[in-house]
TrEMBL record:
Chief localisation class: membrane
Name assigned to this protein: RagB/SusD family nutrient uptake outer membrane protein
Domain named SusD-like N-terminal: residues: 24-167
Keyword vocabulary terms for this entry: Cell outer membrane, Membrane, Signal
Residues covered by the RagB/SusD domain: 364-484
Gene3D superfamilies: 1.25.40.390
Matching InterPro entries: SusD-like_N (IPR033985), SusD_RagB_dom (IPR012944), TPR-like_helical_dom_sf (IPR011990)
Record family assignment: Belongs to the SusD family.
Length: 507
């Protein structure tokens, strides 16, 4: 089966030109002119449906930036008169009416993943060339991508529905008249989502569901990007779920669940995999300036202007130049950035993650072409959205080993990241590396530098708080505000219920 250029060029940040949804929200046709009776008959159909799963999720990367960064400490409003709905995230006061707080894109992806899960093994009855290992890979891919959607949901929203099948599950919801209705998920429409009643009462139940699904997928995914005996070249492999991605995802989930030994063990898989490394400082920007970065990237949502003919929303949200499609909605919070980066040594991340141009401080990752001043073409940025990178595994390993009192290992993995980014390694005489509180601060600061503006900071502060057993998030986030507002935000975020935004679909 030819997966080559199809994968790379079809997984873009716009799904409407490739895949369309019907009037029924969960009745997703993989292609505009194909109906279900004619589909799911061959390996090519499975692959086409798989690509559609990514497209629905990819179009919402600007929301992931708002959910994971605008609310946290490193990002603030760029405009002198901020756009009101954008500013709600910056001010940690997101209303239920905010259009950027809808989760339709995630549920479109969940719907497409459910469809793949329900039909993937039926294809073997039509296509005798479909290997069992290949069918398992397609199943695991859908399961893992669906898990990623629920991972976003469980960390972001106060409540949301769980839907695990496209053709089953009698689901209760209130219709527009307030009458309770039971229906199969395939009959649901977008307008039915607000009335869904299958909201889990205990979020730990959701965490365990996600974790167990990821573990199941991990055992089924092919090693080193082999699909039906074909190895994907590096330019294509990072736009698709892989076994190293699954292992890293499982490690992060294990940290959330307090399973530190398991988390450390899962990190070993991507770390020892010769397809991944920390790379070098000189090559680090390439994962943002190009369409892929060999070894640096692990899983990303790619963007091709030639396929979408729309301004990349990452460029729109972060650029300060209207001439290149920029709205300058978001910018770095200078007082926090200066503290975290501290302009130490020759850190390539300091010169590429953000820039200062005259009076404007900008998030440079999505608008820059080098670490000096060259900018991406106006309206034509092809910046990808990174979800997991190789450095995730190294730094998650450091966190896990620290909790296991393996101080030397945690110190070593921290230093490996530092030296790969152009910094001098810490010496035991520089810091007390057996001081857990201090080391947690240093490791999460390293994650802040490594993954700045990649939608991770808010969730990292949640994780850090969870591990430490104290509210780190309230203290860190409040520091980007001044005067009475700092106190108000600290008091608000001291209640963990206020860490979550009201979940809503848009009609």
């Amino acid at each position: 089966m030819k997966l080559r250029l199809a994968i790379y060029f079809m997984i873009t940040l716009v799904g409407s030109s490739v895949l369309v949804s019907c009037s029924k929200f969960f009745e997703i046709e993989p292609y505009n002119s194909i109906i279900e009776e004619d589909f799911y008959k061959s390996q090519e159909d499975l692959n086409a449906a798989a690509l559609g799963m990514y497209a629905a999720m990819s179009k919402d990367v600007h929301k992931y930036l708002l959910w994971g960064d605008a609310r946290a400490d490193m990002v603030t409003s760029g405009q002198a008169e901020p756009q009101p709905y954008i500013n709600e995230f910056v001010l940690n006061n997101v209303s239920a009416e905010n259009p950027f707080a809808d989760y339709n894109g995630l549920y479109e992806t969940i719907a497409r993943c459910n469809r793949q899960l329900d039909f993937v093994y039926n294809v073997a009855t039509y296509d005798d060339k479909l290997l069992d290992k290949a069918a398992n890979a397609y199943y695991a891919e859908a399961l893992l991508l669906r898990s990623l959607c629920y991972y976003y949901l469980v960390r972001t929203f106060d409540q949301f529905p769980i839907i695990r099948s496209q053709k089953g599950e009698d689901i209760s919801y209130l219709d527009e008249r307030g009458i309770q209705v039971k229906s199969g998920s395939s009959n649901l429409k977008i307008t039915d989502l607000p009335g869904l009643q299958n909201f889990p009462e205990d979020k730990r139940e959701i965490w365990l569901m996600i974790y167990n699904d990821v573990l199941k997928a991990l055992g089924m995914l092919p090693l080193n990007f082999e699909w039906n005996k074909e190895s994907l070249p590096s330019e294509e492999r990072y736009g698709r779920i892989s076994q190293p991605t699954a292992a890293t995802f499982a490690a992060e989930l294990a940290l959330w669940l307090g399973e530190y030994r398991t988390a450390s063990a899962f990190c070993n898989s991507p770390i020892t995999n010769n397809q991944h490394s920390l790379g070098t400082a000189g090559a680090w920007p390439s994962q943002f300036t190009g369409s892929f970065a060999s070894q640096h990237s692990m899983f990303l949502l790619g963007y091709r202007f030639d396929n979408s003919f729309e301004t990349n929303r990452l460029q729109e949200f972060t650029s300060n130049l209207a001439s290149e499609g920029g709205k300058y909605y978001l910018k770095p919070a200078s007082q926090v950035i200066n503290s975290i980066f501290a302009y130490e040594g020759n850190d390539i991340r300091t010169s590429f993650s953000f820039k200062v141009f005259e009076q404007d401080t900008v998030i440079w990752k999505y608008i820059g072409l080098d670490n000096v001043s060259s900018r991406r073409p106006a309206y034509r940025s092809i910046a990808s959205w990174q979800i997991f990178r190789s450095a995730d595994a190294w730094l998650l390993k450091a966190i896990a080993d620290l909790q296991l009192n393996d101080y030397a290992s945690a110190f070593n993995f921290l230093n490996m990241v530092r030296t790969a980014r152009g910094l001098v390694k810490y010496l035991p005489t520089d810091i007390d590396y057996t001081n857990k509180t201090l080391m947690m601060q240093i490791i999460f600061n390293e994650r802040a530098r490594e993954f700045a503006f990649e939608g991770k900071r808010w969730y990292d502060l949640m994780l850090w708080s969870n591990i430490a057993g104290e509210n780190i998030l309230a203290d860190k986030v409040s520091r980007k505000y001044n005067g009475e507002m700092r106190t108000d935000i600290f008091n608000k975020l001291s209640d963990q219920k206020n860490w979550f935004i009201p979940g809503k679909p848009s009609n």
